[in-house]
Amino acid sequence: MRSENEASKPDEAAALAEEVDLPLERKREILAREAALGQDHYAFLGVKPGASVKEISGAYHEASRVFHPDRYFGKQLGSYQARLDRVFRRLAEAHGTLTDDAKRDAYLKANPRLRVAAAAAAPARPPSADDDTARQAERRARLARHPYLARDAKAKSLVTEAKSQLKSGTPERALGLLHMASKLDPRHNPGAAERNEAHAQKNAERVKTEFERAREALAVGDSAAALTAYRSILALEPTSHEAAFSAAQLLFRAGAPAESRALAQTAVQLRGDHVPSLVLLGTVCGQLGMNKLARRHLEAALERDADNAEAKQLLKKLRWV
Amino acid sequence: MADHEPVIGIDLGTTNSVVAIVQSGQPHVIKNRTGQSLTPSMVAVTAGGKRLVGNLAKRQAITNPENTVYASKRLIGRKYSSEQIQKAREVLPYHLVCGEHDDVRVQLGDRPVSLPEVSAAVLQELRKDAEALLGRTVTKAVVTVPAYFNDGQRQATKDAGRIAGLDVLRIINEPTAAALAYGFARNVNGKIAVFDLGGGTLDVSVLDVSKGVFEVVATGGDTYLGGEDFDNRIIEWLVMAFAKEHGVDLRKDRMALQRLKDAAERAKMELSTVQETAINLPFLYTPSGGTSALHLQASLTRAKLEELTRDLAERTVQIAEQVLSEAKVKASELKEIILVGGMTRMPMVQALVQRHFKEPSKGVHPEEVVALGAAIQADALLRPDSQVLLLDVTPQSLGVAIAGGYTRRLIAKNTTVPTSVTETFHTSRDGQTTVKIMVLQGESDIAHQNELLGEFILSGLRLATRGEVEVDVTFDINAEGIVSVSARDRETGVQQSIIVTASGGLTDTELKEILEDQEDLMLEAQASSEVIFKRAALETAAKEVEALMPQVRQLAGTSEFGSDALRKAEAILVSSRAAAKSEDIILLADWIEQLEKTRTLFVGVLERLGAREK
Q1: In whole angstroms, what is the distance from residue A280 CA to residue A270 CA?
Q2: Which of B55, B309, B398, B511 is the most exposed place for a label (fewest CB within 10 A)?
Q3: CA distance A47 to A114
Q4: Contact A215, A242 (CB under 8 A)
Q5: How does pLDDT run across A234-277, given as a tens digit for each residue?
Q6: Which residue blocks in chain A are alpha helix, DSSP H?
Q7: Which SS3 state, helix, strand or coil, does residue B96 take?
Q8: Contact at 8 Å (CB) between B475 and B498?
Q9: Is the per-residue pLDDT at B188 higher than 90?
Q10: pLDDT (tens digit, 9 = 90+) per residue, B548-568?
Q11: For the stretch B386-424, what's the b/e string if a residue is b when 16 or more beta carbons lie within 10 angstroms of its beta carbon?
């Protein structure tokens, strides 16, 4: 590190001498920040570890005023163009990391020295009345220092958070949180019930969107896409009669009776009273030469709907074969 | 300072365009030569071959519909074969023809004109208006586009500027421009939300403003929800009533439908200020067989309109809530919420915004605010002592296509630009010496559901087994929003790159076919060790279940339970194998859990039933 710094001295002189549309003061500022690229996110933004989101954003905006490339639009910048770019990108990265809870936690985990400093800084701050999150962070930091309570409390708070995510209909986030919770405390496996609910919610949501996708695909005549959608529905919810039946129908129309039969069979098993399913299964079986089976299914269809013309006609044909 | 060359801000709208400039620190709209601030975005060619733009074009539109182009913004940057264009062809009175590269052209008089040329005619008109006011030439501008515009549409808009003799310094998003204008005029500090409900789309943006720095925190919305959907509800209602009365379906008659559309839009607009309006369309339908023509007469109240469209309005605020929650901003934190776009004049929309968020900010001129914002950004770029700085974001995610037809996202949407990201990938085949980098824009995990921005090939890789050769892919977006992508072989340092300049503009199916053809050339994403571990665990679990299947199948014949459980197990096996390709650890863990449950179930069943059999 040090040797690099020394080596960069003559470079710095050369950079300062470069003829560009920047005042000397600004050049120095840019070079200084560039030399600081190796610092941690907090130091680079010029805030203390554990600074609030407000402080971080403020520092980021202030620095952007100086280092954003747009401030020098249309100017002759020479090597400073790339320098500014590097500095601003780093500022944006630091800001993005430190203002996102998940990213910040990961960053602090990777930098234990900062975590200690951040945790120490948090309670020192005077608690402000409107800053709920700050108080919570403070509590968490205090607990984090207690080896026995920390895990338990963290897991509990994760489950609570997951619950609220579930309520607001974002099961994916809830699952992520629950996963973390169970990792923290694998023996008690907290949040098992919530996890089930989250799965159910997620599946239901996906099933809904897949049905939607199938509908859209059918509307534009893309039966291949519709079929894929129905198949994913069946994977998520093997008892969906509508998906099985629709997929079987599509396959049959596409001239794949063998594949269609398996799905039609599923559809009939799921809802034995659904006449169109029975008729479809019968038709498919007939096409595959399984006349006996075909007859049985068509008869079953007629048992439930004696006037089904399609079934009647097919049955008549089969009797002649 | 007064010396620097004037830069204008232009809101190139679907129906109307506006030009503005900052003079002595204050932004204001430049009126056109007929004294209005709005210039219709219309271009026409008369029978004599004369080109008319703006008001002049609008005035003769009814008598010359085939040679009057309007709403060309909906078409710009799209491919002729795309669904939107094919749909538009059916309803537009002017003729669209296919250009050389599947681009759209408009038949104007005896010449097919490209869409950037059409927009250029409007831009040129605005430029002339500005020059007339300033008394000097103008060659630089900032132009706004909807937030949902993709790269191709942005490039086409830039092209239009170039044709009009304007150097487009920057393309910025309309909601962002609105926030700039609002925040600039009132010196706001804090979070601002912009709710922009236009004719066809909803854009929602959240900005964090402090002392002139405007940081875009998030943008989002729905590209298929706008004023037209509201109009369609009115049309449906009219058509139903007409069918009931006369037994005629008006939707089959193109001419009648066009008239219904205009009438519905007009009625909707009127109901923003009055409680009731009459819809009169005489001689709307002439039945075949010589009977006399049918007229449509109806009266629509504001209450009825609200009943017809309540769900649409509810959805707009729901989407806005979603964008806010993505930005992790609570409604109570918002300093201001600005309404932009004609549809926000509807009292129900305003009331819903107020109920869900807060009272919309007053004193915004929805037609002018966007152009003013563009002018402010233009001024900020060129004036060294400007206090205004816009920290903009990428509106859509960027990534590459990887093996299996998936997308690997490198830059997520709402990332502040300039930015760059590098990620290491590896070869997906044994002996693969060539890789193809396909740059995608969009939010879908399935590669072909995104927009292809460009592609290139990196060849000359070392012959090795799958996964051994590593390639670094770097995405870079500069402050101007220009995307460049490079790929570098880690061993040899061989590098290839492109600067994305124009959209590939392929349709969904075309892209899918290409991806399938090129499957051999794709890269694989580097899986983290945890993912690899989970994948292995999943495979083991799946094999265990499979091993038990024959035994269970044997028993299935004798039990009701068996066949049902077997079917479920089969489904789980198929889906878990499909999920094994995913990188989502949680998803992988889910499927492992499912497989393990199945295994426990099978073991239990075999023990119990097996014992009984014996």
Answers
A1: 14
A2: B55
A3: 12
A4: no
A5: 877 888 888 889 888 888 888 778 788 888 888 888 888 888 88
A6: 2-17, 24-35, 41-45, 53-67, 80-98, 101-110, 112-124, 132-144, 147-167, 171-184, 192-219, 223-236, 241-253, 257-270, 275-287, 291-304, 309-320
A7: strand
A8: no
A9: no
A10: 888 877 776 666 666 777 888
A11: bebbbbbbbbbbbbbbbbebbbbbbbebbbbbbbbbebe
CB-CB neighbors (< 8 A) of B212 in chain A: 65
The two structure tokens encoding residue A257: 């009776």
Amino acid at B252: K
Residue B42: per-residue pLDDT: 93
Active-site residue identified among B129, B151, B196, B476: B196
CB within 8 Å: A73 and B381: yes
Best mutation site among A70, A80, A132, A183 for testing chain B: the one with the most B CBs within 10 Å?
Answer: A70
Q: Give me the mean pLDDT over the B289-295 stretch.
A: 83
β-strand pairing of B16-23 with B68-69: unpaired
Amino acid letter, residue B216 = V
Query: One of B159, B174, B367, B451 is an active-site residue; which one?
Result: B174
Q: What is the pLDDT of residue B575?
A: 85
Of A61, A71, A266, the CB nearest to B215: A61
Tracing tokens 């009984």 back to the chain, one arrives at B612
From residue B512, give the alpha-carbon distance in Å to each of A210, B154, B388, B441, B524: 19, 24, 44, 15, 18
Beta strand segments in B242-318, E: 276-285, 294-301
Per CB-CB distance under 8 Å, the chain B contacts of A199 are 590
Please provide the distance, in angstroms rounded to a whole number, between the alpha carbons at the two ends of chain B. 100
**Length of chain A as a residue count:** 321
Range from A159-173, A210-224, B206-220 that averages highest in pLDDT? B206-220
Asked if B86 has any chain A CB less than 8 Å from its own CB, the reply is no
Backbone angles phi, psi at B26, to 5 degrees: -115, 130
- As a whole number of angstroms, the distance between CA B459 and CA B436 comes to 8
Note if B73 is an active site residue: yes
CB B105 within 8 A of CB B96: yes
Dist CA A95 CA B366 (whole Å): 33
Q: Can you tell me the distance from the alpha carbon of A142 to that of A119, in angstroms, rounded to the nearest whole number? A: 8
Share of chain B above pLDDT 90, in %: 43
Lowest mean pLDDT among A104-118, A142-156, A254-268, B366-380: A142-156
Region of A23 (left: φ > 0; alpha: ψ -120 to 50; beta: rest) is beta
Between CA B449 and CA B445 the distance in angstroms is: 8
Q: Does the structure show a pLDDT above 90 at B29?
A: yes
DSSP states of A137-178: HHHHHHHHTSHHHHHHHHHHHHHHHHHHHHHTT-HHHHHHHH
Report yes or no: A247 at the B interface, CB cutoff 8 Å.
no
Would you say residue B511 has pLDDT above 80?
no
Residue ranges in B33-93 assigned as alpha helix (H)? 55-59, 83-91
CA distances from residue A242 to A14, A237, A246, A264, B566 in whole angstroms, order as listed: 73, 11, 6, 11, 20
pLDDT at B598 (0 to 100)? 87
Q: How distant, in Å, are the alpha carbons of B94, B261, B344, B431, B435 from that of B463?
A: 56, 63, 61, 5, 12
Interface predicted TM-score (ipTM) of this complex, two decimals: 0.77
Per DSSP, the three-state class of B558 is: coil
- Work out the angle at residue B9's Cα, subtended by the Cα atoms of residues B5 and B14, and round it to the nearest 5 degrees: 150
At residue A2 the predicted structure's pLDDT band, cuts being 50, 70 and 90, is: very low
* Catalytic residue check, B196: yes
Q: Residue B411 has what pLDDT?
A: 93
CA distance A77 to A19: 8
Who has greater pLDDT, A295 or A10?
A295
Asked if B586 has any chain A CB less than 8 Å from its own CB, the reply is yes
A58/A53 Cα distance (integer angstroms): 8
